[in-house]
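Submission checklist for the structure archive. All mandatory fields must be present; incomplete records are returned to the submitter.

[x] Identifier: Dipeptidyl-peptidase-4
[x] Organism: Leeuwenhoekiella marinoflava
[x] Residue count: 723
[x] Sequence attached
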Amino acid sequence: MNIRKTALLLFLLVAGVVTAQQKNITLEEIYDGTFRMQYLDRLHSMNNGKEYAVLNTDKNSGVKTLDVYSYKTGQKVNTLINSSEIDGLDYFIGYTLSKDESKVLLSTKLRSIYRRSSLGVYYVYDLKSRKLTQVAEEAIQEPTFSPDASKVAYGLDNNIYIKDIKTGKTTQVTTDGAKNKIINGITDWVYEEEFAFVRAFDWNADGDKIAYIRFDETDVPEFSMDIFGNELYPSKETFKYPKAGETNAKVSLHLYDVASSETKNVNLSGFQNYYIPRLEWTPDADVLAVQTTNRKQNDLNLLFVDATSAKAKLILSDTDDAYVDVTDNLTFLDDNDFIWTSEKDGWNHIYLYDKNGKLINQVTKGPWEVTSYYGYDTNSKRVFYQSSENGSINRGVYSIKVNGKSKEALAVKEGTNSANFSTDFTYFINSFSDAETPYVFTLNDAKDGDVIRKVKDNQALKDQFEDYVISEKEFFTLPVNGEELNAYMIKPKDFDPTKKYPVFMTQYSGPGSQSVANSWSGGNGYWFQMLAQEGYIIVCVDPRGTGLKGRDFKKMTQKELGKYEVEDQIAAAQALGERDYVDADRIGIWGWSYGGFMASNCIFQGADTFKMAIAVAPVTSWRFYDSIYTERYMTTPQENASGYDTNSPLSHVGELKGKFLVVHGSADDNVHVQNTMRLIEALVQANKQFDWAIYPDKNHGIYGGNTRLHLYTKMTNFIKENL
């Protein structure tokens, strides 16, 4: 240690800034599990509303138990399943209880397909008889109990099957399924990724009908990825991937009658029906609710389908000049009146409609967003939700009468509160964190929010950080381009306002997203702390187009992804550069996915502002990305060619002056490595020097083994060498 550094450390110790035992976070500690966050296991709230089930694993024996606990006391009251006591099954990974809690669906040998989909071998375990029944010999998808738990419907080889648990008989519902051609009851790649669901079939309340969506992918273009693996010759993975402006799967809706084995086709031609992003049966066994939308996704229809006639009726049309978000918030009351969320007044709020689609009333109002909808309690007539009404970077939990009166603040401590309610809305488990506090879980009374008991906290992790040099995350707003943009800053612990520091900007910037939030951040948050103690100021700014500041703020980037967000990040960097303690010649930026798209654009278009940039898994032209996401914000390339090309990093490579690192996984099924390869070629032809790295057979997350440690070591070294 040199004399100057020793003197500085002694000064800081005397000043009380650091203590003798404090040390800096290292990358090895971040990725070897040194900092262990305690989370609450996924709970299943039992039908009685007073108990919940948790899947536990004995670390020594590997035995799994499905245990039931009392909400009020936290004490175990029962064990539903003990894997060591099940004849014919050595282990299981996950579980799903039937609606009546008489049977459990147990999953084994799970294998991931894409982001949300998987294949597995499943068993039904009868909790009373202790009988075990294998659903199918093959690995299947999305097995789902009928309401009375007598049957299980599932997907196999792009077809739908039904297993009768009592008789053991299996019935094939559809027969035309074929890889890369026809899919029945399971979504295609782009629906799974962008509409966020996989199971495209549903049982009605009586269990005598199944509604399902059929996907005809025949004309959808295919995408191929090389899988290098360990063999002498690489293999290829080929799948249907509709890029912006290309042909999507043709979707159709069908009703299957279990008793007669007959299928009815539902004619949706009189409605916006290019996409069918949601379907679910209402409490009425003869009424199916279906959501459909046009290709632009700016006219979302709610349809009711009569199961007897198979005729559809328009109940509600939610329109917007830009787009309408598809959610899972639709909730039916007993009489088929329903709750719906919409941005139609400029902010995302809750609405109550009657069964004919007539507005009864707007339940929530104000210049703030409903950020999560938790449900409706039929007994108290109250709606439970999370919102940003205590500040756009905070989240609070509230309840309100369905008539819009008698609002109750249930968990509103400044920071981020998130609730998981018991089945009867007697209790909720609140998850709280803020920038300085790791997650704390408490059991709360749903009537008034009073804390009944602490369930779990992360005090051990918080105490552990006493051994490390940790800087405060400072929240502020930055006046940029006529807006007050949310931002945060992390300074070195020994920050000296008379010195000048390099700034490393982190961002995502995608439509409706939020990176500046008052919540605990592990992972990259630890990395940012490490960089701060290396002498960098970390800054994050949420530009125009991001979420939770109203419909107009979010949707102003329509048809121009990468224009206003880039302008804001460049202007933000320039504004930061005017501060006395910032070295304006040493400002860098990075991002992943959409953030990589942004980082690339920023160093190209802000060549005189940014000294360096890192882009991980970037989109480099929206022409290369999928149809549903891209067209939601950009319409098609045929309609909006200038919007696609003017804001593409490929159009600005000639402006590069600083140091640039681009990284991608070769098996990224989401943002294809094609994006980076085309960017590399454009930079080469522009005779621009840069650095790049490809991680073989890694997907969009770029992880596995030492991959993350290697990647973050590479990025850290690049920052130190170039900023």
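[x] Structure attached
Curator remark: Residues 1-20 have pLDDT under 50 and may be disordered. DSSP finds twelve helices and 43 strands in the chain.
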